[in-house]
Amino acid sequence: MKPAAIPLSKILELEPACLRMEIPQAWADSNGHMNMRWYVALFDDAGDDLHVRLGLPPIYHREHATGTFDLEHHTHFLNEVIPGDRVAAYARMVDCSAKRIHYVMFLVNETRGKLAAIFECVNGLVDLKIRKTMAYPPEILAGIETAVKAHSALDWEAPVCGVMRA
Q1: Cβ atoms 98, 141 nearer than 8 A
Q2: Could you tell me what percent of the chain has a pLDDT over 70?
Q3: What is the torsional sign of CA 88, 124, 147, 161?
């Protein structure tokens, strides 16, 4: 089901963007637009920035033998992205639990002034020694909860599918 339209002005309230880039020609498919596999790559790279903002930079993971794993995600493809277009990805926190975060990302085609895609994700912190999800340390969970609370106060609903939970 296609999500309700969200004015770009509302998405831009989520500044700063987690990622900004120009789409390379090599990412084109036989239809002349960005192949769907690259949407996941863009959202994955943007997710790295989101995790840094939440207190989980690469150095934290190296020092604690942790990482993050996507546990579930869904992508709505709304408008084409053509090689040469400039895009930006914005994140909105939806919910969290002791072990998981639930967020939505928006890929904005800045060249065309359109929302190109919406990516919804549940992600977890993982102990890489035993390859299982683990609870966020209290100081990191507190920051995540603060971000969820701030985004919950926005005057527009997050476009979630309704079946994912943190």
Answers
A1: yes
A2: 100
A3: positive
